[in-house]
Design goal:
There is one protein chain. This protein is 52% helix and 14% strand. With 262 residues, the protein is α/β, with parallel strands linked by helices. Strands 3-2-1-4-5-7-6 form a 7-stranded mixed beta sheet, with helices on one face. α1 packs antiparallel against α9. The N terminus is likely disordered.
Length: 262
């Protein structure tokens, strides 16, 4: 449990550092634009043009600080989008509704930086060939989304026990309902997978993001049994060579990376 807390703290610290750096980039660029506006009053720019200048400066600062590429684009577009949106005089109710919907779908993505990714049918097809056909086994999907992958695998492999861990409210509710009405060997849990013990699973499947992969490997290598399997969709573990890679012919042309726990 102590190890899990350390891994979680390290992962969250990286995410929080990126968020703080993004905020500082926004503040610094805003102050720079304000300075230009005050001391160069001859520049007759519209509010939208000032916002574009601020966005360009924020994205440049993000790039200079070597932040992840998506933060560069977020800092570039954030203020101009706010200015455009405010120009439509939209009722605050719709902003609140939109915010509630985002929280319901994505949960604490702002904290974990693991967005909602849905595995394609090609992933299901490949995993069906990798999982045992006869002997009993256990499989867990970290961030199981709406439960489509788990239900399909549980339906085709009655010899397995399938588990999903999801922290976003709406996907969890959908997946829980699906598991109740479709298959009996599939269970969905609400919560944070960093708090779960991996030792009882033969196969751990993850479709996360680049940020937590190093911490995931540390947790898996300490908790999973020797010979068990860690599978990652799209994202690799830095410095750890997978024993097998399977290229998928899906819409995102992703790759499954497989590691056997030594």
């Amino acid at each position: 449990m102590l190890t899990n807390k350390i891994l979680l703290r390290n992962s969250l610290q990286k995410n929080q550092n990126s968020s703080i750096m993004a905020l500082l980039a926004q503040i610094a660029s805003f102050l720079m634009v304000a300075f230009i506006a005050v001391f160069h009053s001859s520049l007759a720019l519209s509010l939208f043009e000032w916002s574009c200048m601020q966005g360009l400066l924020a994205s440049f600062i993000s790039y200079y600080l070597r932040m992840p590429l998506w933060w560069v684009f977020i800092n570039l577009l954030f203020t101009p989008i706010v200015v455009i949106t405010l120009s439509f005089n939209i009722s605050p109710f719709w902003f609140l509704l939109f915010f509630v919907c985002l929280v319901s779908i994505y949960g604490k993505t702002y904290k974990t930086q693991v967005p909602l990714y849905l595995s394609s049918k090609n992933v299901t097809t490949i995993l069906e060939t990798l999982l045992p056909k006869q002997r009993q086994f256990s499989f867990v999907d970290l961030g199981s989304g709406c439960g489509g992958l788990l239900n399909d695998l549980a339906d085709s492999h009655k010899n397995g026990q399938f588990y999903g861990i999801e922290s976003a409210p709406l996907p969890f509710l959908i997946s829980r309902i699906r598991s109740v009405f479709q298959v009996s060997n599939c269970k969905i849990f609400w919560g944070d997978f960093w708090q779960h013990d991996f030792s009882k699973y033969d196969v751990v499947y993850a479709y996360l993001s680049p940020i937590p992969m190093e911490s995931l490997w540390q947790k898996a290598s300490k908790e999973m049994r020797s010979g068990s399997l860690l599978i990652s969709n799209t994202f690799i573990i830095p410095g750890i060579t997978p024993y097998k890679s399977i290229h998928l012919r899906d819409f995102s042309k992703s790759t499954l990376y497989l590691w056997k726990i030594p």
